[in-house]
Amino acid sequence: MELESLRQEVARLKTEEAAFQVQSKLLENFVAMARSPAQGEMLKATLQKTLEVSAELTGAEKGSLFLLDSNGIVTDSILTRSDATPEQRSRLIGSVLDKGLAGWVSRQREVGLIIDTLEDDRWLTLPGQPYTVRSALAVPILRGEELLGILTLLHSQPGLFSPETAELMKVTSHQIALTLENARLYEKLAESYRSLDKAKQAVESYSKALDRELEKGRQIQRDFLPDQIPQLPNWEIAAYFHPALQVSGDFYDAFSLPGDCVGLVIGDVCDKGVGSALFMALFRSLIRVFSGQSSMYELPDSTINEEMHAETHVNQINALKAVALTNDYIAQEHGEEGMFATLFFGVLNHKTGLVVYINGGHEPPFIVGSAGAKHRLEPTGPAVGVLPHMTFEVQQVQLEPGDILLGYTDGVTEARSPVGELFTKKRLQSLLEQPAPTASDLLERIKTNLFIHIDNAQQFDDITMIALHRTPITEA
Question: Which residues are CB-contacts of 265 (< 8 A; sequence separation ≥ 6)?
């Protein structure tokens, strides 16, 4: 009894050792494939190696291994025979799962051992079968209650596979199940990574194309801003434009008008991005077009300050009708988009220094003299384009020699530091208390202090400024 028990223990240890060797070989192969840069299909390679190791362990000549899904449908398969055609392979798998040994194993969830196929009705001999089989061993690959697949080993001589071999493969099947499950999960993960990489490449490609289109839009928008600013004797006009994004909703303009007049515009379209950039171009174009032909339209008398002598400033007042005309066009034709702009439109008579203006809800421009800020040109009407038939009051201001009119957008006063602190109107006004010899010098001073404040903080609003300077009269 002790000798028999010892023999059984030795047999058990040999079985466990063989199972461990199978596990080690499969694991080594799995790790090697996972690390290989040219791994190909992980699952197919693992199936092939599993079949080869199993045949080596049992002495089988041929075999097959296929995986099943939860419905019993074959998802992957491999045969040791390389001379089987795809038609033979498909017919073989379908038949044995239906009536053969593999089908029996699938239903019973047990190891199927056939000592001699001629004496066991579980064996199905196919017509025209390309090889002879006398011994067969089929092993279910189980993970818990789930049948992952079936491993079938074959030999041309009867009696090759014994109950001990069947027990060995039963123990080994647990290691095979673990390896195959890992390979299947790895394949799914690899496929997910491949899909993610393709999606990433597509996004990068789209992003580059979008950047190219936005760059075109930026250049087109730049072209909408004045290429040349009017040069006037005893006057200087300077501007600064810094968009937060590739395209901007801010705009400025300076252009000549009839009767010794020059139009000055600074505006800020609501919202950001492409939509505001398109409307920026529309607002700028409408102001230019309407200011050149607005004498054909009537402007309600109630919009003209009673202190003004309209007959003296007819060209300036006619040009300012462009604001009301632009407002009505935007509100009536594009009201559904909800786009509007705040803007300041001033018309300068450069002979007299008189500026007649409308401020449509915009940041009040400053009039800066030698002693600092003298006036703020407060809004004289609402934002442009909100509702049709709005009233915009016309006002005027006299620029004396040495005065600078400074217009700006809220991107200046609302610029943020790295800790979120706003630049503020108070800080801007403090920069105006120091005399500036020219309009360009004033803008440079503001810009320098502004970007010191911003430092490396991300900006979310465009920065735009325009300045008009009446140069001092010099003694002859």
Answer: 251, 252, 253, 254, 284, 287, 343, 344, 345, 346
Backbone angles phi, psi at 164, to 5 degrees: -65, -40
- Domain 2-191 in CATH 3.40.50.720? The answer is no
Query: Can you give the pTM of this predicted structure?
Result: 0.59
pLDDT for residue 182? 74
Instruction: Give the Cα separation of 227 and 221 in Å (integer).
Output: 11
- How far apart, in whole angstroms, are the C-alpha atoms of residue 161 and residue 168? 11
Sheet architecture: strand order including 354-360:
250-257, 261-269, 341-349, 354-360, 395-398
Reported in sequence order, the residue ranges of 323-371 that DSSP labels E, i.e. its strands, are 341-349, 354-360, 366-369
Listed in sequence order, the residues at least 6 apart from 212 whose beta carbon sits closer than 8 Å to its beta carbon are none
What contacts 455, CB < 8 A, 6 or more positions away?
417, 418
User: Which of 255, 256, 254 lies closest to 266, judged by CA?
Assistant: 254
Q: What residue segments make up the domains of the chain, in order of their start? A: 2-191, 214-470
Residue 177: its pLDDT value, please?
A: 77
Per-residue confidence (pLDDT) for residue 21, from 0 to 100? 57
Query: What is the DSSP pairing of strand 112-114 with strand 135-143?
Result: antiparallel
SS3 state of residue 254: strand
| pLDDT of amino acid 147 | 87
Residue 64: C-alpha distances to residues 75, 166, 188, 369 (Å): 14, 16, 23, 95
What is the residue whose two structure tokens read 């950001």?
A: 272
Nearest C-alpha neighbor of 235 from the set 420, 422, 404 = 404
C-alpha dihedral, 173 to 177 to 180 to 183, nearest 10°:
-140
Average pLDDT by stretches of 10, the chain with 476 residues = 55 53 52 47 71 82 83 76 59 72 88 91 77 89 84 90 86 76 70 77 72 59 73 94 76 92 93 76 91 60 52 82 95 88 96 96 95 93 95 95 96 94 94 92 96 90 94 70
Other CB atoms within 10 A of residue 475 CB: 3
Amino acid at position 445, single letter: R
CATH fold group of domain 214-470 = Phosphatase 2c; domain 1 (3.60.40)
> What pLDDT is recorded for position 474?
66
